[in-house]
Amino acid sequence: MVMKKISNYILAFFFLIFSNSLFSQPGTVANHSKISASYGNFNGILDPSDRFSVVESIGDLNGDGVIDIAVGAYCDGDGGLNKGAVWILFLNSNGTVNSHQKISDTQGNFFGILDSWDEFGLGITSLGDVNGDGINDIAVGARYDDDGGTDCGAVWILFLNTNGTVLGHQKISNTYGNFSGVLDSDDLFGISLSIIGDLNNDGINELAVSSVNDDDGGTDCGAIWILFLNANGTVNNYQKISNSAGNMIGLLNAGDRFGRSIEFIGDFNNDGVYDIAVGSFFDDDGGYNRGAVWILFLNSNGTVNSYQKISDTQGNFTGILSNDNLFGISLTLLNDINGDGVNDIAVGARKDDDGGNDQGAVWILFLNSNGTVNSYQKISDTQGNFTGNLDPSDSFGTTVDFVGDMNGDGLVELFVGAVFDDDGGTNCGAVWLLSLNNSCQALSVNLGNDTLICETDTIILDAGNAGSNFLWSTGETTQTISVSPVISTEYTVIVEDSACYSYDTVFVEINNLPISSLMNDTTICDGDSLILIAGGGTSFVWSTDQYVDSILATNPGMYYVTISDGCGFIVDSVYVQVIPSPVVNFGNYINFCFGDSAILDAGNTGSTYLWSTGEINQSIIVSSSGLYYVFVDNICGFASGIVNVNEISQPIVNLGNDTTICLGDSVFLDAQNAGLSVLWSSGDTIQTMYASPSTPTIYSVFVDNFGCSGTDSIFITPLPNPDVYLGEDTTVCEKDSIFLDAENPGATYLWSDGSTNQTLIIMPDSAMTVFVDVSYSDCVDSDTFEINIFPLPQVNLGNDTVLCEGSTLELDAGNSGNSFFWSTSETSQQILISNSGTYYVAVTNQCEDTEGDSIIISLVQNPEINLGNDTTIGFSQIYTIDAGAGFISYLWSNGETNQTISLDSSIMNAGANYFSVIVTDSNYCNTTDSIIIYMIENQAINMQFGWNIISTYIDPFQANIDSVMNYLYPEIIIVKNTIGMTYWPFYNINYIGDMIIGEGYQVKMNSPQTLFVYGNAVTPELTPITIPQNWSFIGYLRQSSSSIETMLAPIVNEIVIVKNGDGLIFWPIYSINNIGDMIPGEGYQIKTVNSVILTYPTN
Fold first, then answer.
1. How far apart are CA 965 and CA 960, in angstroms?
2. Is 214 exposed, middle or buried, given 0-12, 13-18 or 19+ CB atoms closer than 10 A?
3. Measuring CA to CA, which of 282, 389, 538, 1015 is 20 to 30 A from 916?
4. Which residues are paired to 363 by β-bridges?
5. How many angstroms separate the CA atoms of 959 and 947, rounded?
């Protein structure tokens, strides 16, 4: 435990005799081991640039009898860039790692808020058991924390569990931890930390914290803060030591960065007050940034009594320092390892160049009692018997920490950090464990851990090492002693064997019944908080299910705490009342009904009040309209409110008298009071409504005028409606009897004949209409009944007629609903006939009256027509179709009604056109015929005697050149295309094959001729032409002439020259154009620079 470590420092003066048996030069390395990403059984994950190296012993945290360490990796990236982390390493006795626990922004149960670049873990020190739970606690620096300003820095007090996780924390910074010292931006408060013992004897160790860039007395002179802590980790008081404070005025230079390392060195000058060593690693004594160490002999208030500087030029130090060695970047107390009765120290110089650039070194300084150097031993890549493998830039010596003889082998152990070691990745960092030779084979003395006993208890202390000599702080000289202290007491034993001395201490604490520090019942304002501190004890159970010595109260209520220690417990409580700041809210206005009054309540019970009426109660009663205001005051603040009070008239509602209606009718209801809030018993919220109940119903309405209301109701009784149905209208024979029933018993009846009975019997002799009115009170219904008399059948089959051959004729006897008998024996109203002959029908009605008729049918032949065979015409042709003479009517498929129709391109489309006609003769017999006329486009191309260049805009129906041109043979001699293929009809040679749209052809003629090409005209702007490089023939695809410059503009930059069949040229590079317009039917010889695609532009 740290208390034991501190006691060891204090007890140095007890040693009177030291061993004369030297094994090796004190301070040299006997053996070493390494903890890194690759060594020491450490399987934690280190990332490149984590800088795992800041080492501090923290006692036996997990109680396994082996000392444990904390190692800072201040650039760890858990939770954000360079937030930092601390690794708790549980060691084996050989210095390897048994297990570990990481504390970071995301691990170890640490819930403090870290920001990127805080570098949590650059400074670490063990604090002993600050909160009295029997477990060592630590302080961790975060030099770039921004509380209160950029890079002001902060320190985190971490209350640990035995497994290395965080039980709780307290932050100390510009804004936390009750620290009222002034920190400026870039002070880097927390870059180095050290416990320095209990200076003020309050039972709690003090903490020294450096601000390496503090500007007291000059830029970056540096400073340290002595923090006198409370048990909860907050600051009780402080003392600053700098160029302008703490009795060290004017000793530092700008840029010294005093405070980069701090180490407790016990009561070095034996004045009863603990002393410290402070590194100033940019000190320029002897050269640039060589560094220095200050031995500060303190007063009990934390100020400096006197000092001794150790540097390249002071303090009797004769070791060789070079520029930029940074001597003093780290410090640790070694106790007396050379046996001269004076404690020694180790000092890091991380940029020492022994063995390689910035490999680093550690100086063992054997001190005199006045703080000067008696002698030294350097440990580096080339000195001090150190055989570990250091690489350039490892910065061995960045941190140092002494742990004594951790494995009982008589050697003392020293941890050394190498911040830029590359095991596992660039700048992952590492820690070296060096076992140092000393002047005496130390005995192993272990009185056990500090302990807690109750009053009147007895404990036996055993120093072991039977046969040795013993001296206890009680004066006893036996191996064991029995003690029963009445107050907490520290016991020390010195064990001597063969002139070698070892010692140990144990602190026996008396555990009295705990005393509560809870305050009396209290009051806080809403939004504030209160720290409730339970006081002394080892365990705490709050009614809030919290288990720490202090909690934060923000809610009202009774807070109970049970405070226990090993000897008993007490229960205490405090009631916290939370009073909100007054808030007055009446809303925009308050209404009251005419003749009533309104209550105005300012709320905030327990406050004081002053109304505009002069009243001072929480609520007042007002009975007139106006503005009212109130002032409200309590211990948490002041508020005021104003409200507009309005007197509102009460609405009057009259729905009228109760009434009756016929079932299915409705009543118009009006709540009046337009613009006010209305609610009907039906749920409707409109001013007016129609009520149509099916049963007797009360309708009520509620009308609200801002809280003042009126209401009314009406009772509506629906009467039944008679439902009269005399039946379907009917047809009867004369004098038939008909029975009619108006139903609805009990109603009143009035028939069309004046009778008033429910039923009526009539015997009509002609068609008639009967009606009846039926009523229940004012609810009336009526019906009519139509009576028709069956008529005698009237039969007419029409005049005698003819029937076209192959046709049919329908004969209809009429008189639907009667009976029928035809001469064909058929019995339907209509019959269908297809033969000549005389046809008769007899028709009998329901009254058995019969009438008949007959008709003569003659059979005639159908007319005949012939429109001719299907044919083909050109676009310019007119074609006439004749259906023949002698018919009474014509109907063509195009709607015309003449004997003949004339057809041309205005009414026909290219391709197949279908036409048909229906003709009718004088017998009204008709027949039909049809014809298909194919209309095709054509282009006439005039060719002269001799050579011609031609082209066509027609896509021929038959593309083969022989099909297009053979009818002109023998006038055609030969045809050539662009690539020299020929068509030579005289020899039946055709290498050209199909004509290609857009290609030109060279034709030699025996005589002038006109070539007709039949097919479909192409669309030029949709028909691209591929023109090969150099000479070729191209066609012109438009049906009208156009400027050659316009037509060939899309490819003008590729054209060399163009010729037509007459030898005229278009030579664009020389602006020569003898051709003028391109002409349909002509082809052109063209030479191009490259192969191109031509699409003729739109005219």
1. 9
2. buried
3. 1015
4. 347, 378
5. 22
Question: At residue 24, does pLDDT exceed 60?
Answer: no
Distance in angstroms (rounded) separating the CA atoms of residues 583 and 113: 34
Three-state secondary structure along 50-113?
CCEEEEEECCCCCCCCCCCEEEEECCCCCCCCCCEEEEEEEECCCCCEEEEEEEECCCCCCCCC
Residue 266: Cβ within 10 Å count: 23
Tokens at residue 72, please?
Answer: 């800072």
d(CA 311, CA 329) in angstroms, rounded, equals 13
Tokens describing residue 139: 């302080």
Q: Provide the residue type at 860 as one letter.
A: V
Judge contact between 498 and 492, C-beta under 8 A.
Answer: no
Cα–Cα dist 557/119, whole Å: 41
Helix, strand, coil percentages (3-state) for the chain, rounded to 5, are: 5, 45, 50
User: Cβ contacts of residue 471 below 8 Å, gap of 6+?
Assistant: 14, 477, 493, 494, 496
Determine the Cα–Cα distance for residues 972 and 648; give it in Å rounded to an integer: 115
DSSP state, 614? Answer: S
Q: Which two tokens stand for residue 454?
A: 């109750």
Report how far apart the first and last C-alpha atoms of the chain are (Å, whole number): 104
Find the helix or strand (DSSP H, E) in which 933 lies. strand 926-943
Residues of the chain with pLDDT > 90: what percent? 52
Cβ neighbours for 966, distance < 8 A, ≥ 6 positions apart? 985
Rounded Cα–Cα distance for residues 1058 and 1085 (Å)? 6
Q: What is the pLDDT of residue 197?
A: 82
How many helices (H) and strands (E) are present in the chain, helices listed first? 3, 82
**DSSP assignment of 314-376, as one string?**
STT--S---TT--EEEEEEEEESSSSSSS-EEEEEETT--TTSTT-BEEEEEEE-TTS-EEEE
**What average pLDDT does the segment 536-542 reach?**
84
Q: How far apart are CA 336 and CA 13, in angstroms?
A: 10
The answer, yes or no, to whether residue 610 has pLDDT greater than 80, is: yes
Say what the pLDDT of residue 270 is: 87
Question: Positive or negative, the Cα torsion across 37, 43, 49, 55?
Answer: negative
Residue 367 buriedness (CB in 10 A; 0-12 / 13-18 / 19+): buried
Q: What is the 3-state secondary structure (H, E, C) of 1051-1082?
A: HHHHEEEEECCCCCEEEHHHCEECCCEECCCE
Give the whole-angstrom CA distance, residue 550 versus residue 177: 14
CA atoms within 13 A on the CB side of 465: 26
- pTM of the complete model: 0.46
| AA identity, residue 41 | N
**The pair of three-digit structure tokens given for residue 52, joined into one six-digit string:** 């795992």
φ/ψ (deg, to 5) at 3: -60, -40
Secondary structure (H, E, C), 289-309: CCEEEEEEEECCCCCEEEEEE
504 DSSP β-pair partners: 493
Paired sense of beta strands 659-662 and 708-719, if any: parallel
Cis peptide before 26 (omega within 30 of 0): no
Instruction: Please provide residue 385's backbone torsions phi and psi, each rounded to the nearest 5 degrees.
Output: 60, 25
Residue ranges in 879-997 assigned as alpha helix (H): 961-965
Tell me the Ramachandran region of residue 266: left when phi exceeds 0, alpha when psi lies from -120 to 50, beta otherwise.
left
Q: Are 1086 and 1034 in contact (CB under 8 A)?
A: yes
Q: How far apart are CA 554 and CA 526, in angstroms?
A: 8
pLDDT at position 500 is 52
Sequence-separated (6 or more) residues with CB below 8 Å from residue 765: 734, 735, 789
Is residue 7 predicted with pLDDT exceeding 60? no
Beta bridge partners, 1044, equal none
The answer to whether 225 touches 183, Cβ cutoff 8 Å, is: no
Supply φ then ψ for residue 4, to 5 degrees.
-65, -40
